[in-house]
Write a structure and sequence with these properties.
alpha/beta; two-stranded antiparallel ribbon
Length: 375
């Protein structure tokens, strides 16, 4: 895209909420901050607002770039901007860093007012339900009574679904991309391996590593390596790396032999350099806990009966972490409740990460759907 299709230089904003919030686990925060960004212009009747919910390692920085760091481009910049599928010439787009995050919103790295030290291990697990409640408070602050749409991929899609259940009259459209109504046992298992790699790092110090001036980088690095394997498809790994040797010969050691090993180590090192381990722990728990059908004896149709929005669900054929059949579960449950549902199953070989890519068919589906939203 040329510069005219970018939202350009953007600046994060911070909202302070002094009203306490009681989280699903029973812990009460006396107050909290949410960092967010906005793109486009809110129209006169505030009917063109769209909320973008981020996935596990995402943030409020959805689109554009920072003037002091032009290479820091928003994680969904290929989707959001003037003339892009989510067109900021039409919509006012809001991205927010969730509670418990490590990009400015109140989280484990924040100072606990009771101790004047970082919360660390004392910061509670925040659930998808908690995030949606805090996002609703942000919407109130921005004067947005109803979202034209709420969307997200993966964990972000779970938040979009929760919005339609917690605040059915405040969402006209929900776009749930590469997501699921709950995690499978296999997905929970992958998350537990990732957590254990962090918890067993000697530098973790029970979650209070800030006091020791260290980072549990080894554990966080391994957690990201495990996670990254699940984000890619076998086809894409084979296409990008195959069995290519890093230096053309076998070393007969435990150093890097294959390109895929080098790639995973690089991704792990990069992630450990900017993400907080406590945030990773609580975010994976939020993934594990989300299950709107739990209170309905596992009946997803009954759980989704509250929804009033129109829906678009998109899945990807090679996404084995959130496979297409998980999206179809939601489609069938929503249709059972008489909802207006569109569904796209995209043939893309990039696995779970497909929702972040500029696939023409995928973006065509998104563009067409957004064009049909009246504001």
């Amino acid at each position: 895209m040329s510069p005219k299709h970018s939202v350009g230089a953007v600046s994060p904003q911070k909202a302070r909420f002094a009203e306490p919030i009681r989280l699903a686990g029973g812990f009460e925060l006396p107050g909290y901050d949410l960092v967010y960004e906005t793109y486009g212009t809110l129209n006169g009747d505030h009917s063109n607002a769209v909320l973008v919910c981020h996935a596990l390692s995402g943030s409020h920085h959805v689109a554009g770039y920072y003037a002091d760091n032009p290479k820091n481009v928003g994680w969904w910049d290929n989707l959001v901007g003037p003339g892009k599928p989510l067109d900021t010439d039409k919509f006012f787009v809001v991205g927010v860093n969730n509670l418990g995050g490590c990009f400015g919103s109140t989280g484990p790295m924040s100072l606990n007012p009771a101790t004047s030290k970082p919360y660390g291990a004392e910061f509670p697990v925040a659930t998808v339900e908690d995030w949606v409640e805090t996002q609703a408070r942000l919407a109130d602050l921005l004067g947005i009574e109803q979202w034209a749409a709420v969307l997200g991929g993966s964990l972000g899609g779970m938040q979009a679904l929760q919005w339609t259940l917690a605040y059915p009259d405040r969402v006209r459209h929900a776009l749930i991309i590469a997501s699921a109504p709950k995690l499978t046992a296999q997905n929970i298992a992958f998350n537990e391996v990732a957590r254990q790699s962090i918890l067993s790092d000697p530098d973790f110090h029970g979650g209070n590593y800030y006091d020791h001036g260290v980072v549990p980088a080894r554990g966080l690095r391994l957690a990201r390596m495990v996670g990254h394997i699940t984000y890619l498809s076998d086809d894409q790994m084979g296409e990008k790396f195959g069995r290519q040797l890093r230096e053309g010969v076998l070393k007969y050691s435990y150093d890097v032999d294959f390109e895929i090993e080098s790639y995973l180590r690089h991704q792990g090192d990069k992630f450990a350099g900017f993400f907080d381990a406590n945030t990773y722990l609580l975010t994976t728990k939020a993934l594990d806990y989300f299950d709107p059908a739990r209170e309905y004896d596992g009946d997803l149709k009954a759980a989704l009966a509250r929804a009033r929005a129109n829906f678009l669900l998109v899945s990807f054929t090679t996404d084995w972490r959130f496979a297409p059949e998980r999206s179809r579960e939601m489609v069938y449950a929503l249709l059972h409740n008489g909802r207006n549902v569109s569904y796209g199953e995209i043939d893309c070989n990039a696995g779970h990460d497909s929702f972040l890519l500029t696939d023409p068919q995928y973006h065509g589906v998104m563009r067409t759907y957004f064009q049909g939203i009246k504001v």
